[in-house]
Design a protein that fits this description.
Bound molecules: uridine-diphosphate-N-acetylglucosamine, uridine-5'-diphosphate
Number of domains: 2
CATH class of the largest domain: Alpha Beta
Low-confidence stretches: none
Radius of gyration: 20 Å
Helix content: 40-55%
Structural class: alpha/beta
Number of strands: 14
Mean pLDDT: 97
CATH topology of the largest domain: Rossmann fold
Length: 381
């Protein structure tokens, strides 16, 4: 039996790896050894708990205010020690965090094949998102099997000289995770959210955390939200705020005392997807939320200058608006008051997956290890 080691460390990796872990655990062909770096702690454990994942190994690397170098070196060092005693036949890494690139490097140094989930996303700007664009390019160079979510990501990889046979288009496993979670309508832990849900009031759901937005851009976001809250007393702004103190210090001061702004701790995935399905508009700089919200037909305003996820942009459900205060206020206001504009954006589109990405992933791994065959690629839902 082949041993496969998924390695992940942050909230979005955990959400997107969960369907793969589950499919590997169900397969009679593989032994699944789950390793977490602990780049995130509470936000990682929250996801593992929901999906019933109990890690076999935990490097526990988180340090408050951690630097990119610390995440990189502590991950490589921890995996070096782990691989000395537990050598998997392949590792699976997800996305573009520093955990994923460090894990790919550690495996590569040990001659262990790297399988990269969510391969081939490119913004075309090495500095945005930072350091994710660089992370994903580095990982692509040392990956044996590239699991691209869409045909666009396949084309990006081929353009960079990756052999077409080493790429499989699977769809994004975030849609697998979303579809198995959102319909459960799990209860909100915070009673204010249950009350809000029952009230029928319109919700603007906001998330922000990107490193390149920290500082002045994020203060702009806080100020813009405060103005929207004042101008739209019937609207409720919900901000499940990231654990990063740098984010909190930038965005929260402007929101103090606003009755229609509800700031919460990071929500468990089941609660977040329920809120997402209840939201009227989504304002975010998150990668994963850009993929999930279109699937639920929610207009998404993305607080970034570019995106490595052009598919929903092309479908018209996502709009790039940057982090200028005036622009954020104007774009939210337009969606609230221009019903034709709102309807044009509120399309349920599924360019990112059909809920079968984990099955395609496991089939591609079977082929890589000579025990099965890949299945038909994802061509759009
Ligand atoms: C990381 C990823 C980013 C991903 C994001 C998802 C890198 C370089 N960045 O960014 O690609 O989009 O996760 O959220 O890999 N913290 C806690 N507890 C937690 C999580 C975070 O206390 O559970 C605090 C710590 O003080 C930590 C800080 O947040 O130092 C930042 O965490 P870090 O993982 O370094 O960066 P993120 O901005 O979360
Ligand atoms: N998410 C969550 N709880 C929250 C906010 C977000 O479970 O309070 C989920 C969201 O549904 C998405 C993922 O976290 O799947 C996105 O994570 P994040 O924005 O931290 O990272 P990114 O996707 O930008 O890398």
């Amino acid at each position: 039996m082949h041993s496969i080691m998924p390695i992940f460390g942050t909230r979005p990796e955990a959400i997107k790896m969960a369907p793969i872990v589950s499919a590997l655990q169900e397969s009679p062909l593989f032994r699944c050894i789950v390793t977490v770096t602990g780049q995130h702690r509470e936000m990682l454990d929250q996801v593992n708990e929901l999906f019933g994942i109990v890690p076999d190994h935990d490097l526990n690397i988180l340090q408050q205010g951690q630097s990119l170098s610390a995440i990189m070196t502590r991950t490589i060092d921890g995996l070096e020690k782990l691989f000395a005693g537990t050598r998997p036949d392949a590792v699976v890494v997800q996305g573009d965090t520093t955990t994923s690139t460090a894990a790919a490097i550690a495996a590569f140094y040990h001659g262990i094949p790297v399988i990269h989930v969510e391969a081939g996303l490119r913004s075309g700007d090495l500095l945005s998102p930072f350091p994710e664009e660089a992370n994903r390019k580095v990982t692509s160079q040392i990956t044996r099997l590239h699991l691209a979510p869409t045909s666009t990501s396949r084309e990006n990889l081929e353009r960079e000289g990756i052999s077409p046979e080493d790429i499989v288009v699977t769809g994004n496993t975030v849609i697998d995770a979303l579809l198995t979670t959102v319909d459960k309508q799990l209860p909100f832990t915070d009673p204010r959210l249950e009350e809000l849900d029952a009230s029928g009031r319109r919700i603007l759901l906001v998330t922000t955390h990107r490193r390149e937005n920290q500082g002045e851009s994020m203060r702009n976001v806080g100020r813009a939200l405060a103005r929207i809250a004042d101008a739209e007393p019937d609207l409720v702004i919900v901000l499940p705020v990231h654990k990063n103190p740098v984010v909190r210090e930038a965005v929260l001061p402007a929101l103090e005392g606003k009755a229609n702004v509800l700031v919460t701790e990071p929500l468990a995935y089941g609660e977040f997807t329920r809120l997402l399905s209840r939201a009227h508009i989504v304002l975010t700089d998150s990668g994963g939320v850009q993929e999930e919200a279109p699937s639920l037909g929610k207009p998404v305003l993305v607080m970034r200058e570019n995106t490595e996820r052009p598919e929903a942009l092309e479908a018209g459900t996502v709009k790039l608006i940057g982090t200028d205060e005036e622009r954020i206020v104007a774009e939210v206001s337009r969606l609230l008051h221009d019903s034709a504009h709102f309807s044009a954006m509120a399309n349920a589109v599924n360019p990112y997956g059909d809920g079968k990405a984990a099955a395609r992933t496991v089939a591609a791994i079977e082929e890589l290890l000579g025990v099965g065959y890949r299945t038909a690629e994802f061509t759009g839902a």
